[in-house]
Amino acid sequence: MCYFRIMGSSLVHKGINYTVGLNYVGEGCTRDIWRTELVEQELRVIRDELHCTAVNVYGTEVPRLVEAATIALSLGLDVWLQPRLYDVDAAETLDHLADAARAAERLRARHPERVVLNVGCEYSLYTDGIIPGEDAAAKGLPLGSPRWWPVLPLFNQRLNFLLANAAAVARANFTGPLTYGAGLWEQVDWTLFDIVGSNYYRHEHNEANYRQGLRRLHRHGKPVAVLEFGCGGYRGAEKDGPRAQRLVTWDASAHTSVRESAPPRDEAAQARYLADLIELYAAEGVFAAFAFEFIQPASPHSPDPRLDLDRAGYTLVKVHAEDAELPYSSGHWEPKAAFHEVAKRYRAL
Fold it and tell me: 86: Cβ–Cβ under 8 A, 6 or more apart, which residues?
């Protein structure tokens, strides 16, 4: 598929995000269980039941990225490949990107015009040296504080310096199209990339102007991709958008639980949110859209509301913990209301 001859088409890529696991410093991988047969089963469902035409395969370990991408391509899905590291410096980020770019080029050579390299996700939060803070959570605090807003241009200047280096590293190793997953607060120099990419979550603070903001992404004269969109599965989640993790609390032993004050589970809220946005993207000429996300074994569902981490996640399917009767390792998962709604919308396009 040629990405640029059909630039004016709407939702050429009906997609979803698919994680191969994220390696957090000192915390291990978010996807401990990794088996080829599970990956292939899930990607077949993405193609056959969700009616996706593309996946954004993201995560830390390059061999896993390659394995998942290879399976997806063999199934006829187009692949957008995104390496992610968290809480590391620019040099490590660029070295990791170079490895991923070389791998993506080998995939592109075997599958011309079916691979896009998505160089990274929200560097200002996840790479050291742009916004002050020891980790992504600390770096996010200034974004909500008016006293920091006057220095946002400085943060964006630092971001674009890193992005210029990232684009150069990527192009030295990969000859296909490039994009980047920009956060809502990031002002990216899109001359560096072939596709404008935004993690364009809708929430209560941008809801009134969401459509206008989407239209502004087209001013660069390039295809527009919404690389992440989604919300949690609880009452009022559509107002929170990307802030669903506020429901979760961590104690000193890294144990996670859902706050007692958290709103009740409401899968219909998530389904309505995703349906509305898919309809909007199709109407507004968005080139590619990737719902966030298919599966996340690190956030299992539980009938105990205090342990229902899935409620605070963004997935279209729910899994159960390893001590449950049907754990994820058995290959068992269950579609949520959002799964059926996305499938219906994608199938109709």
Answer: 22, 23, 24, 25, 126, 135, 136
CATH numeric code, 13-348? 3.20.20.80
Query: How many Å is the maximal CA-CA distance in the chain?
Result: 53
Cα–Cα distance for residue pair 94/144, rounded to 1 Å: 28
What is the rounded CA–CA span in Å between residue 304 and residue 296?
18
How many angstroms separate the CA atoms of 274 and 101, rounded?
31
Structure tokens at 212: 């206008």
Segment holding 40, helix H or strand E = helix 36-48
The pLDDT value recorded for residue 256 is 78
Tokens at 10, concatenated:
């709407």
Task: Categorize the per-residue pLDDT at 254 as very low, low, confident or very high, splitting at 50, 70 and 90.
Answer: low
User: What secondary structure, in 3-state letters, does 148-198 show?
Assistant: HHHHHHHHHHHHHHHHHHHHHHHHHHCCCCEEEEECCCCCCCHHHCCCEEE
Closest alpha carbon to 194 in 220, 161, 172 = 220
Instruction: Kindly report the backbone phi and psi dihedral angles of residue 301, in degrees, each rounded to the nearest multiple of 5, phi listed first.
Output: -85, 150
Closest by Cα among 146, 230, 153 to 187: 153
pLDDT digits (tens, 9 = 90+) for 90-123: 999 999 999 999 999 999 999 999 999 999 999 9
| Measured CA angle at 115 (ends 112, 116), to 5 deg | 135
Residue 148 corresponds to which tokens in the numbers above? 């920091």
**Number of CB atoms found within 10 A of residue 221's CB:** 8
Show the tokens assigned to 178: 């490039």
Q: What is the pLDDT of residue 80?
A: 99
pLDDT at 141: 81
Pair 71, 34: CB distance under 8 Å: no
Q: What is the mean pLDDT of the chain?
A: 94
